[in-house]
C-alpha cells in the first residue's frame, strides 16, 4: 500500500490562489463539488479542504501532516509550540504583500491609540490574540467574537472598535472608517505535524513540497531575457544586465553574433529593454519562469 501524506488546503479566500500555486509547483489539485477531499495527481498525497482558522489544530493533533494557514491563526489557536513551521509563503488572491490586522474605528471616534480602548467594546474574529494583546498592555476591554460583517458593527455603533484584517486598507476607508494602528502582520505559513517530520517518508515529501512551492513563488518575481548581441557590443550589454552570477553567453552560427540569456527582476524590464536595444541588442525575448530553485 502506498504511503500517503495528509495535506490541508485552505478553504475560502486563499483556496483558488493556493491551487494555482500548487499547479505552478507541479501538482494539479481538482476540487470536487460538495466534497471536502479534492483529487490530486500524486498518489503519495491525500488532500483535504480545511478553513484556515481550523488548520493549525488539525496539524498539531496529527489529523493532518501538513497544511497552509495564516500565522495569525497559529497564534489565535495558541499552537505555535505544537507545530513545526516549515516556511513562509507570501501570496494571496489579490497581492503578494502580507496582510495585517488593524484596529478600526469610525472616522470621528475619539479613540486615537490602543490605550484609548480602556473600558471599550471591541468586535473581531481574532478574539484570543486580541485579548492577549490588550492584556499585555494593561488594557481592560470587552472583546467579543464577530461572526462576520465585522466592519458593519462599528459603522452601526454596536461596538466602539473592531480588529479586522486588510491588505491595503482601501475598503476600510471606503466605509468611512479610520485605522488607528496595526496590531499584527501575518502571512501564510506551511506548517507540519512534529511527529510527521520524524517519519522519513513524510519528511521527504514535506521537504519536496516546501522546495517547489518556494521555487514557484520565487519565479513569480523574475523573468528570463534572451537576446542576440554583436560581439563588439558584448561588454556594453553585459554591463547593463543584473544576474545571479553572470549572463549565459553562447556563439551563434554567425561568429560575429552572440546569444545572451539572463534572469532579472520583472520590475526592471520596462527600463532595461530600451537600454539593451540602445546598446546594440536585437531579437530581445522576455518569458515567464515557472520555478526558480
From TrEMBL:
It is an enzyme of class 2 (transferase). InterPro entries: ATP-PRT_HisG_long (IPR020621), ATP_PRibTrfase_cat (IPR013820), ATP_PRibTrfase_HisG (IPR001348), HisG_C (IPR013115), N-reg_PII-like_a/b (IPR011322), N-reg_PII/ATP_PRibTrfase_C (IPR015867). Its EC number is 2.4.2.17. One of its GO terms (biological process) is L-histidine biosynthetic process. Catalyzes the condensation of ATP and 5-phosphoribose 1-diphosphate to form N'-(5'-phosphoribosyl)-ATP (PR-ATP). Has a crucial role in the pathway because the rate of histidine biosynthesis seems to be controlled primarily by regulation of HisG enzymatic activity. Pathway: Amino-acid biosynthesis; L-histidine biosynthesis; L-histidine from 5-phospho-alpha-D-ribose 1-diphosphate: step 1/9. Feedback inhibited by histidine. Its main location: cytoplasm. GO terms for cellular component: cytoplasm. Residues 51-214 form the ATP phosphoribosyltransferase catalytic domain. This is ATP phosphoribosyltransferase. The gene is hisG.
Amino acid at each position: 500500500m502506498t504511503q500517503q501524506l495528509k495535506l490541508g488546503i485552505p478553504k475560502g479566500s486563499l483556496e483558488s490562489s493556493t491551487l494555482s500555486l500548487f499547479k505552478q509547483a507541479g501538482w494539479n489539485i481538482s476540487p470536487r463539488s460538495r466534497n471536502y477531499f479534492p483529487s490530486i495527481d500524486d498518489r503519495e498525497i491525500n488532500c483535504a479542504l480545511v478553513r484556515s482558522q481550523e488548520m493549525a489544530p488539525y496539524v498539531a493533533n496529527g489529523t493532518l501532516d501538513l497544511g497552509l494557514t495564516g500565522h495569525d491563526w497559529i497564534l489565535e489557536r495558541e499552537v505555535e509550540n505544537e507545530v513545526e513551521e516549515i516556511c513562509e509563503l507570501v501570496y494571496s488572491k489579490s497581492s503578494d504583500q502580507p496582510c495585517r490586522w488593524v484596529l478600526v474605528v469610525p472616522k470621528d471616534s475619539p479613540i486615537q491609540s490602543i490605550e484609548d480602548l480602556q473600558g471599550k467594546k471591541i468586535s473581531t474574529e481574532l478574539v484570543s490574540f486580541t485579548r492577549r494583546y490588550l492584556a499585555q498592555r494593561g488594557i481592560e476591554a470587552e472583546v467579543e467574537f464577530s461572526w462576520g460583517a465585522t466592519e458593519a458593527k462599528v459603522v452601526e455603533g454596536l461596538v466602539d472598535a473592531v480588529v479586522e484584517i486588510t491588505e491595503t486598507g482601501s475598503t476600510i476607508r471606503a466605509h468611512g472608517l479610520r485605522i488607528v494602528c496595526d496590531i499584527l502582520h501575518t502571512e501564510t505559513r506551511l506548517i507540519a505535524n512534529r511527529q510527521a517530520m520524524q517519519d522519513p517518508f513524510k519528511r521527504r515529501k514535506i521537504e519536496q513540497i516546501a522546495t517547489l512551492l518556494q521555487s514557484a513563488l520565487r519565479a513569480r518575481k523574475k523573468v528570463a531575457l534572451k537576446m542576440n548581441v554583436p560581439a563588439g557590443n558584448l561588454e556594453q550589454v553585459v554591463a547593463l544586465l543584473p544576474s545571479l552570477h553572470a549572463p549565459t553567453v553562447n556563439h551563434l552560427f554567425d561568429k560575429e553574433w552572440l546569444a545572451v540569456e539572463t534572469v532579472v527582476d520583472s520590475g526592471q524590464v520596462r527600463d532595461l529593454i530600451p537600454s539593451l536595444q540602445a546598446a546594440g541588442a536585437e531579437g530581445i525575448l522576455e518569458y515567464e519562469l515557472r520555478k526558480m530553485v
